[in-house]
Amino acid sequence: MHEFDLINKYFQKLSKKSPSSLNLNDDVFFDKKRKLVVSIDTYIEKTHFIDFKKPDLVIKKIIRSSISDLICKGVTPKFYFVSASGNSKNFTKSNLLKISRSLNQEQNKYKIFLSGGDTVFSNKLSFTITSIGYADQIIYRNKAKINDDIYVSGNLGNSYLGLLVLQKKIQLNQSLKKYFTNKYFMPNINLKLAKNLKKFANTSIDVSDGLLADLDKMLNNQKLTYKLYLKDIPVSKTLKKVLNVKNLSKIKYVSNGDDYQVLFTASKKMSGIIERISQKNRIKLTKIGIIQSSKNKSSIVNGKNRVISHKNKGYFHKFK
Asked: pTM of the prediction?
């Protein structure tokens, strides 16, 4: 059973008397009266991260991916809580020291504060992060409009190549290995974007499960479709070189997730504002497509405006 089928069938009805839960169809809980925004995520070894050989980097990835849920709503994260399950093999003195140092670095970088948590013994290693921020308003899902432009922040695809390097599924030199694995463990999320996003975005989501999967989620209760221009989807110069040299498919790399960039739509009249904010704050914001009515099928087109066939939309949580 798909994650969203499970939520809709068994749990959505339990949230009907809690408008702040947003029908369990958004990245966050938002209590407008109290200006409270909450996000929660769980990360399990071998599902969300390969292993725990680099605990200092794993915890950085977990923290950044968690607070990206707030950032894509236009909310600045303030506090976080960590619950961890594991055993003495996972949480050695050496590993705990590395985790503590990394959390301190992340706190200084993103101005967030550890505020509580829990630890339990388990033979399965996992972390659950609760992130909290405050806001008068957020950017919701399912608020796109026909003819909205589709934008994404930063670059896509680096993280997926980093994952393939860690899985030893692709061969690169040491310099490139380090570059892409660092991008996998330390996605570049931007606090300045959180502070400006509400000035122009109609709807938004972070790219966690993959560009196409998350775009579908962003529009899932609307009778709308999208048209994406493959040539405009931003990738780093380093990834572009690797794709060219190894003759790899760009669409595969930009649609496999773990990028934690912000995907949003905005009215065409906002293009000037977006460009000015992008330049002033040195935030890369790229227009990659357009929102259409459901009369048209969702599509990705190449430089010759020909529709590309692509079956793998990204990662989906499934329960057997």
From this structure: 0.93
pLDDT of residue 309: 74
Both tokens of 267, joined, read 């009215």
What is the Rg, in whole angstroms, of the alpha carbon atoms belonging to the chain? 19
As a whole-number percent, the residues of the chain with pLDDT over 70 amount to: 95
**pLDDT tens for residues 44-65?**
999 899 999 999 999 999 999 9
Q: Where does the chain hold its CATH 3.30.1330.10 domain(s)? A: 3-134
> Of 27, 21, 126, 120, which is closest to residue 71 (Cα–Cα)?
27
Q: Which CATH class is domain 3-134?
A: alpha beta
Do strands 113-121 and 77-86 pair parallel, antiparallel, or not at all (unpaired)? parallel
Q: Which residues of 304-317 are buried (b: 16+ CB within 10 A; e: fewer)?
A: eeeeeeeeebbbee
What tens digit of pLDDT does each residue of 131-170 get?
999 999 999 999 999 999 999 999 999 999 999 999 999 9
pLDDT in tens, 241-253: 999 999 999 999 9
Q: What are the two backbone dihedrals, phi and then psi, of residue 212, each rounded to the nearest 5 degrees?
A: -75, -40
Distance CA 160, CA 252 (A): 9
Instruction: Evaluate whether 197 touches 261 at the Cβ level (below 8 Å).
Output: no
Going from the C-alpha of 38 to that of each of 175, 189, 240, 284, the distances in angstroms are 38, 18, 36, 26
Fold of the domain spanning 149-301: Phosphoribosyl-aminoimidazole Synthetase; Chain A, domain 2 (3.90.650)
Q: Are residues 79 and 131 in contact, defined by beta-carbon separation less than 8 angstroms?
A: yes
